[in-house]
Amino acid sequence: MLASRPVVHPLEVAPPADPVEQPNGVLMKDLPGMPGTPGGLGLRVVQLLFAAISLAVMSSTNDFASVSAFCYLVAAVILQGLWSLSLAIVDIYALMVKRCLRNRRAVCLFALGDGITAIITFAAACASAGITVLINNDLNICSENHCAAFESSTAMAFMCWFAIAPSFLLNFYSVASS
Predict the structure, then answer these.
(1) Residues 6+ apart with CB under 8 A from 91
(2) How far is CA 107 from the centre of its chain?
(3) How far apart are CA 27 and CA 23, in angstroms?
(4) Taking Cα atoms as reference points, which of 100, 107, 90 lies closest to residue 177?
(5) Do residues 37 and 30 make contact, with C-beta atoms less than 8 angstroms apart?
(6) 117 in Cβ contact with 164 (< 8 Å)
(7) How many CA atoms, within 13 angstroms, populate the side-chain half-sphere of residue 12?
(8) N or C: which end of the chain has fewer CB within 10 A?
């Protein structure tokens, strides 16, 4: 057998007794947090949760649209939420049918998508943090704005980025090691 698992139906196959008989390029151990594992699903759910909280808090204010950095943050967390939701669905499917997600092209796509959304989310969070510092500390017009909501939404965007970093690193490791 030249695959780590059967193509059509999942079967429990005993590993070969001799490690020399194992095919090259097959990673036989799932690391926690990799796609198709319960840890990977947990990371996706946490990413989705933080992105949804950030979006909800920022959109609850009526004047976020007047600042382009806040609009960028809303767009970034929407993209992050959609990406995390779609990969959570893929992880749920893989767990339900007991399949691994070690297809090189799929893992490359996951790593690329995680990298892009991580960069966008981090940039949006940094831009929003800069504006909240400007409003609060430099201009001292926090009483006229929703500073607490802006700061909370920015903090949730950073937490979302902290949750996507392990996903990206594990996917990138999986691509590099195969």
Answers:
(1) 35, 36, 37, 40, 41, 44, 101
(2) 13
(3) 9
(4) 107
(5) yes
(6) yes
(7) 0
(8) N
DSSP for residue 101: -
61 touches 149 (CB < 8 A): yes
Determine the residue type at 154: T
Instruction: For residues 99 and 11, give the distance between their C-alpha atoms in angstroms, rounded to a whole number.
Output: 10
Nearest to residue 163, comparing CAs of 53, 75, 29, 58?
A: 53
Amino acid at 140: N
Q: What integer is the mean pLDDT of 81-107?
A: 90
Overall pTM surpassing 0.70 (yes/no)? yes
Q: Which amino acid is at 123?
A: A
For residue 37, what are its two tokens? Answer: 């594992």
Quick one: what percent of the chain has pLDDT higher than 70? Answer: 83
